[in-house]
Design goal:
- The longest helix has 14 residues, at 8-21.
- Strands 13-10-12-11-15-16-14 form a seven-stranded antiparallel β-sheet, with helices on both faces.
- Helix content is 29%, strand content 24%.
- The chain is built from ten helices and 16 strands.
- By secondary structure, it is of the alpha+beta class.
- Helix 6 packs antiparallel against helix 9 (259-266).
């Protein structure tokens, strides 16, 4: 069954009908639920229907000099629902965090058609269980997140990217360590081995640092970075190049201190690494081994929220 609701009530009825029949939901399309329900610039909060794309939301918030501080790939296609269900993030997660840090309220349609709410529309909200965090990253296996409330940030006055080219992983590891031990507070700490147009090509890796804040803060950090040897102008073009390549990317998670060790194992595979977070996206021919998921816990959650199994199973 494919659901294409025109409202939250329509979604509730559709799920209730499917649940009563025990019919599996192939997918739920929320393209009609794409409104900004409420934006309170003075409170730095926004409530939206989750069919809206991230790019459309950011454009609306930008009119008031605000933004939702997440930058996953392809924001023009990524809906807020997908952002939440995949717990998607981008290069700025090192400094700004992930969507989990900004979600303060959510409305979820359950498998039996009930609409539940977690959190609220104010930042200081501590009542009840924090169910919102449970649904982040659930990939639509427990319910349909149809409305969400986020806390926002003012858009930074300035943002600058610089990089250093490293011809060996030993040099790369040393430079990352120097950056982390310094007084710098980068919002981006990326590492990649991609060929970027209009730049000098070189073997090895490029360490990209990004700084955001007031103009004075950014200028001070850029000057300090130059003292560490990170002084070449850069951008986030590598991010677009990697995700626009087309073929699926694999994800590897490790301790930040283990990033360069994992890169040695990956060899010459194209990579983009969130060096400060321990996340590596790569396109190695062979599949990397996966960590054992908490299967028992996942089954208990599935039994509680979707006992008739009308939503997809979480892949293990």
């Amino acid at each position: 069954m494919i659901l294409q609701p025109s409202s939250l009530k329509d979604l509730s009825r559709g799920l209730s009908h499917a649940g009563a029949l025990g019919e599996k939901i192939e997918r739920v399309e929320l393209s009609a639920l794409n409104r900004v329900v409420e934006h309170a610039p003075e409170d730095l909060t926004v409530t939206v229907e989750t069919g809206i794309t991230l790019l459309a939301l950011q454009a609306e918030l930008g009119k008031c000099g605000q933004w939702l501080p997440v930058d996953p790939p392809r924001p023009e296609r990524l809906t807020i629902r997908e952002l939440l269900e995949e717990n998607a993030s981008g290069p700025r997660r090192f400094g700004w965090g992930t969507i989990r840090d900004y979600l303060i309220g959510v409305k979820v349609a359950l498998a039996d058609g009930r609409i539940i709410k977690s959190g609220g529309k104010v930042v200081k909200n501590v009542a009840g269980y924090d169910l919102a965090k449970l649904f982040i990253g659930s990939r639509g296996t427990l319910g349909v997140m149809a409305e969400a409330t986020f806390k926002l940030r003012p858009a930074p006055e300035a943002e600058t990217f610089i990089q250093a080219r490293c011809d060996s992983l030993d040099k790369t590891a040393s430079l990352i360590g120097l950056a982390l031990e310094s007084e710098l507070a980068p919002v981006v700490l990326d590492l990649h081995n991609l060929a970027v147009p209009n730049t000098e090509s070189s073997a090895g890796f490029n360490l990209v640092l990004g700084f955001a804040g007031t103009r004075e803060e950014v200028e001070w950090q850029v000057a300090m970075s130059r003292e560490l040897g990170v002084d070449e102008p850069s951008s986030l073009v590598h991010e677009r190049i990697f995700w626009n390549e087309g073929s699926p990317a694999q994800r590897l998670s490790c301790l930040p201190s283990r990033v360069t060790d994992e890169l040695r194992r990956l060899g010459e595979a194209p990579i983009v690494a969130r060096a400060g977070n321990g996340l590596i996206y790569h396109r190695q021919a062979s599949k990397a081994p996966k960590a054992d998921p908490p299967v028992k816990l996942m089954r208990r959650l599935k039994d509680a929220f979707d006992p008739k199994r009308i939503f997809p199973e979480l892949p293990v």
